Structures are given as structure tokens and as C-alpha cells.
Amino acid sequence: EAYENIYENENKKNNKGIIVGVDLDDTLYSFVEPLLNKYNVAYNDNLKLSDITDYKLSNFLKPECKNIFKEFADKELFNNITIEQYVIDELTKFNEEFTLYFVTAGAPITVRDRDKMLSRNIDWYTSSQLIICRNKELLKLDYLIDDCLGNVTKGSYKGILLTKPWNLYSN
């Protein structure tokens, strides 16, 4: 659906000049849910993805868990991530028609694991397509596809918001 939205808006013969950024975590693949699974075991909790109704995940965790990402966003987590085939098919269309980047605000310590995960899942992916940036509004993109409302509304690009429990009640 995002591909059709962009393609219809950009009916130019050569669209490689159109720059599309796609977020990684919970946009291309499930990220919070496997984190919660590890968290629930370690902290004897029962949080579900549907419980996370705000982008700030720490609001839903036990106080003993100081940083869920430092604790559980590790090599093992990224080694187990699989991008669904229908997502790869859409990304392939994007990559053929537009200039495509993968954009993440993930911790720098996870860059190598994210890069390996993308290489393992997407045969045409190159490391030069990966951008690490906490303030995505600084990026010069035409479109950004993301699960965070703040990311899709702050930049000069056109934002496409993926529906997630943490943005269901956003305006």
C-alpha cells in the first residue's frame, strides 16, 4: 500500500531521484514483541504488544528494568529476525523504482547486527543503504515510512505512518 501511494504521487519516468527512507524496528519486522518476550521471562511479567499504547516503552516496564534495549536487543535477537516475504517483495519494488535507504534510531552498538540481519534477509541490500539517525527529521528524504508519529510528522518529507498499538490513539 505504501508503494502504491508513493508511486501514484511520483508519476515521473525516472523515479530514482525520489528518496525513500524506511524505518527498521516494527516497520520492516517485529521488534518490540520479541523484546517483550525476553523481558517477560527475565522480569516475571506478562506484557503484550497490545499493552504498549505509547511510543515510550519504558512507561510499561517494571522499574527494575532500566533499559530493555541494552538488556535484550542483542546479537541473538537480530540473528532470529526474519523479514516476511511480502515485505521483501514491496521493498524490492521500492529499490527498483526509487533510491531506498533503511533508517533506524537504533543504538550504534547494534549497527553490525542490523546490517547482517538485512544482508541475510534481502539479497540486493548493501550496507550503504543503512542510515543510523536519532533525529530522522534531519534527513533529506522525499518519503519516510515509520511506526513513530513524531518521525513521520517532523521532517520536510512526506510521512507514511504504520499502524501500531503505540500510535493508535495519536491525532
Tell me what you see in this structure:
It contains seven helices and five strands, in the order H-E-H-H-H-H-E-H-E-E-H-E. The protein has helices at 2-9, 32-43, 68-72, 75-79, 85-97, 111-121, 149-154, and strands at residues 19-23, 99-104, 130-132, 143-146, 158-161. A five-stranded parallel sheet has the order 3-2-1-4-5. The longest helix is centred in the middle third of the chain and has 13 residues, at 85-97. The two termini are 21 Å apart.
Sum this structure up briefly:
This protein is α/β, with parallel strands linked by helices.
Keywords:
five-stranded parallel β-sheet, 5 strands, globular, alpha/beta, 171 residues
Query: What is the C-alpha radius of gyration, as a whole number of Å?
Result: 16 Å
- General form: globular
Straight-line N-to-C gap = 21 Å
Helical fraction: 25-40%
Query: Helical stretch count?
Result: 7
Assembly state of the chains shown: single chain
**How many strand segments?**
5
Order of helices and strands: HEHHHHEHEEHE
Strand fraction: 5-15%
Give the topology, please.
Blueprint: H1 2-9, E1 19-23, H2 32-43, H3 68-72, H4 75-79, H5 85-97, E2 99-104, H6 111-121, E3 130-132, E4 143-146, H7 149-154, E5 158-161
Parallel strand pairs: 1-2, 1-4, 2-3, 4-5
